[in-house]
Structures are given as C-alpha cells and as structure tokens.
Design goal:
alpha+beta, Umud Fragment, subunit A, Arc Repressor Mutant, subunit A, seven-stranded antiparallel β-sheet, DNA-binding, homodimer, 21% helix
Chain lengths: 199, 199
DNA sequence: TTGCATGTTCTCTGTTTGTTCTCTATAGTA
DNA sequence: TACTATAGAGAACAAACAGAGAACATGCAA
C-alpha cells in the first residue's frame, strides 16, 4: 500500500467511526490535505483493488470498509466473578476484576465476521457466532485464519504450512477433510483472536 | 442513505421526541429548509425502503419510526463486516448492520464467569471461555444455567425440570452423564446469555 | 356532500459528486 | 543522464442528488 493510500484509508476509517457513514471524495481530499477529487478517486481505486474498500456504484458516500473495523468506543466493563468448573464451588477472584473487551474490540485492525456453518465446531466456533479477527497477512502454524482461496473463496480454518510451498487448511470438524493448496492460491485476510456469541 | 434523507430522518426523530407524534410533510420541509412537499415525500419513500420508517396509509402524521431508529446509541456498536461460510466469498453487509453488544453488556444484572473444563463443549463452550450470565433465579427448560448444588457445588449445565420435583442437569459432552437432583438441592444462579472468548 | 389540507406522483432544472483524462513535479535509481 | 514510481492538480464529462412545483388523489371535518 502506498503512503497516500494508507493515509486515505485511515481517514476513511476515522470518518466512518465518527459519523457512521462514509465520506465523499471532497471530504476525503480535505481530510488528507489535498484538493483534487480526481486524485482521491485514484487512491480509492487502489484500495479497492487491494481489498480494503468496496464501492457501491457511483453513488455519493458509496464507500464501504471491508477489512477494518471501527472501534467500539464505550463498552461497559463487566464484573468477572470467578471461575466455574463442574463440581466445584465458584472460585472467587481476589480483586474486583473486570472483563475488559476493549483491547480486543478497539484496535482499528480488528474486524468481526459472522460464522456460517460448522466447519470449526470442534474449536467451539458454531454457526451464528461472531469471530473477532485481526487483519494481517501472515499467520503462525496452527492459527485459525480467514483465508481467501484464489482471491474469492473465503474460509475459516486452521492453517499449516507444508514446506516448501503448500498450505494445508484444516477444519475442526471430523466430518470434513483438510485441503491442501499451493501457497500462491491462498491469501490470509486475518487471524481469529476472539469470539462472541449472543443468545 | 443520502444526505438529504439523513437530514430528514434526524428531523423526524427530533420532532417525535419533542411532540410525541410525527410531523406532516410541510413541517418536515420547513424543518430541513426546503419548500417542496413532493421532495420530502420522495425522501420519505427512500427511508421507508431502507427500513428506517414505516407509513400508516396516506394519513397525515402517519409516519412511524422503526425501533432501530428510536432506540438511540447508548453504546457504540461494533461493525459487523460480513458473513463467512466455508467455500464462499465473504458476504459483505451494508453498513447499517452492526454487532450490538449493548443489550448483553449493559444490564447491571449481568456478570461473567470463566469456564473451566469441557462439560459444555458440544455447545461450543470451552475451557477458558467467558460466559455472560444474567442473574436470575428461574430458567426455561433447556437453558444453560449456572446452578448451585447443595449450596456449594457450582456447575454449568443444561437444565430440565422433571415434574414434579426433580431437576436434570445435562452436560453437553458425550463423555459425561446427566445428573438428576431433587429440586430442593438446586439453586439457579443465572442463565447463560452470551459467550466471549479471547485469544 | 363539499371543500380544503395533506399526501403522491410526475416532470423539469440546476448543482454536486464521482470518473477519467492529461499535465506537472519530485524523488529514487539504474 | 534517462527512466520509473509516486504525489498531486485540475479540466471535462456523466451520473447521482437536491429541490421546485404542477397535477392529481385521498382523508377528514363541517
């Protein structure tokens, strides 16, 4: 990503976080300190090509962020009461501890995806869950990653590197088989850092 | 949403908050600084199509704000970027969609426990997870509850009532057996409403 | 039932926004 | 030096948007 594009993307993220909708080209131009809408348009095209943005036709404010997240600002901390284990008393915690979600939910490089299907069910990731991902292009062996196959098929799997040039994507579901791809066909979109389930 | 529509919606929300009923087209027009009722009508149609408003026939003051518009923004919601399903492109979502944690995280009657063990693993609740519980003394059949046995053993299980006076606690793990207790021995401490996993 | 205020559906017009060019300038580099 | 990549300006054009207002339809009250 070029410096100008990075600057542009940052401004868009900030704008969306603040307003809840995307800026128009002129607002972006002003925001990054230039005057030409045409130039901004060029940066945007670059960001779209790299998969950071989506455009909704030629509509005004038609930009959509793809891989980045707006941060949740004021998430109330919850009291963490203790540990629960089957057959034992709840183990109280010394100090008044709170579950601070903000570290996970705040980084601008985090985003959320809702899971469909049961390919990772043995990892406790079920249909309908929200996975919190960190946007990054690399991963450690065994990480659960959002992987893009051939630039358009997305999937959530364990990733293993098989030297010299193969990637094995392993589902956490006995009914499903691991798949092996040449390294060139796989793009890592992010790594799962957390999970949220409601209901 | 177009700028004009946003302005229109804001005015309507403000008007309703102030008066308790919805404005007529001419009032909206005046409120957003234009004169044409026809134009306002067009904006309204757009807002209805986007699900922000509802119209009660062609009656005067027949506009109704939908829940989403009414309930305000006490806690900044998280952006939900899309769905991920194995083998498909990530399905992007309009930016209206958000992961709204507020209902879960807001109530003062919610608390968090950290899970030890795998007794609920088939429900996707794993060792180390945080379960978000609502503090209550009763539960529906099948709820996952924090139950206290004989006032000191805590456990996380599915709860079923077996009339007239027995409680069956069922783990979500094939390796473990359901347990049946007399109703007097069980105290319900809360019901699991959500789950959070970090790392 | 009549009459008026209100809501709807058009068309028309000017403005704003996004796109696509070309042009310039400044580094870094072979 | 010449070449390349990056950054930016700005003009010209098309699409989208914002608004006016006329003509018509509808609900409601006297």
């Amino acid at each position: 990503m070029k410096d100008s594009e990075r600057k542009t993307l940052q401004f868009i993220e900030q704008f969306v976080a603040e307003h809840g909708f995307s800026p128009k080209l002129q607002e972006i131009a002003k925001g990054i300190g230039i005057t030409s809408r045409g130039t901004v348009s060029r940066y945007i095209d670059g960001l779209i090509e790299q998969g950071h943005l989506k455009k909704d036709g030629k509509k005004s404010r038609g930009l959509n962020l793809l891989q980045t997240a707006l941060q949740g600002k004021l998430i109330a901390p919850l009291p963490l009461l203790g540990f629960i284990a089957a057959g034992k008393p709840i183990e109280a915690i010394e100090q008044e501890e709170v579950l601070d979600l903000s570290s996970l939910l705040q980084g601008s490089d985090h985003y959320v995806l809702r899971v469909r299907g049961y390919s990772m069910q043995d990892e406790g990731i079920l249909d309908g869950d929200y996975v919190i991902c960190q946007s990054q292009k690399t991963a450690e062996n065994g990480d659960i990653v959002v992987a893009l196959i051939d630039e358009h098929e997305a999937t959530l799997k364990h990733l293993y590197w098989q030297p010299p040039d193969q990637i094995k994507l392993v589902p956490a579901n006995e009914a499903m088989q691991p798949q092996v791809y040449h390294i060139d066909r796989i793009t890592i979109q992010g790594v799962v850092k957390g999970l949220f389930r409601a209901g």
